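request received
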Amino acid sequence: MGNPMKIRAAVKDGVTEVKILMQHEMETGLRKEADGTLVPAWFITEVKAQYQGRTVLETQFGQSVSKNPYLLFRFKGGAAGEKITVSWVDNKGDTRSDEVSIAG
Amino acid sequence: MNTSNVKKLIPLLVLATSCAATAAENEISDSDRIAQYREMISDGNPADFDEMRGEELWKTVAGPKQATLEKCDLGKGAGVVKGVYTELPRYFKDTGKVQDLESRLLTCMTTLQGIPEEEITAKPFASDKKASDISSLATYVVGQSKGIKMAVSTKHPQAKEAYEIGKRIFNYRAGPYDFACSTCHATSNVRIRMQDLPNLNVRKDAQTAYASWPAYRVSQGLTRSFQWRLNDCFRQQRFPEPKFASEATVALTMFLAVSANGGEYAGPGLKR
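response:
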């Protein structure tokens, strides 16, 4: 299982803003070690955010996304105290899921 | 759930920091836009993870003596972490030396935990693309001084001496390029490539610069400590590599910290 994410979510004027900081190496598969061996690709392929069990964001990531990616999105709705769940899957099949409550 | 509901929930904005730091640099033509970029990513500073790791290390039993660092005295008493960074470097009675944060952590790790100094200083910054333990510990400690004003004292004669030595090092020209720190950092409104260079003789510049280290370097994917910053400055000047936590680096840190006195500490920072 991957390392924990840092997620913050806050609702203001009926719009919830979600900030996600993920911990991942995000290796492109193009980089080489000093001895010339290729560093195998290892990156997040999918990120999904769910609010009250409904998907509010579904996105594909690739090699061009940096190490420790930061993702910010907003959606209409949401109320303080309700839960947001964010999960990702990487190309090795590893996953991570974290949950936060929306702040008022 | 019907389609219209789904549409309402479609995210309004998706933003991902990309490793396009270098590509972005070519397009961005003024420092305002660099500031804008910093602002944009300042919410998601991966140094937070290092702070978490450092806190964990602080509380974890380690070394031959099987001890945590919770009895480490960083200047405000054993185990006190809050606000200590704003008063470092300082003179420590027990070692009889002026120490910065990292040299003090080194003392604690060797005395409390019994870890051999060579083991820590062999790779003091990072290895295998991971921040060293001492680096992460430093990141944790500085994070506990966020929002507190820098107040480094030179009252003790040795602290005063360190400050004076640091000032001399800052202005000392040497090496194949006949460089000094002051070559780049004693003139206002100059830049190297796209980076504005702070004039460290100007209090406001010194405060901003000092308050932003240690920092997560996006291009390196690592949180870098102040000792690393100085080490890299020495490298850029083509000086011999300074010894980790040496008297010279502590003295230079002393000079820079005192120059930043009165400024609010804002680290760990985030750099391109």
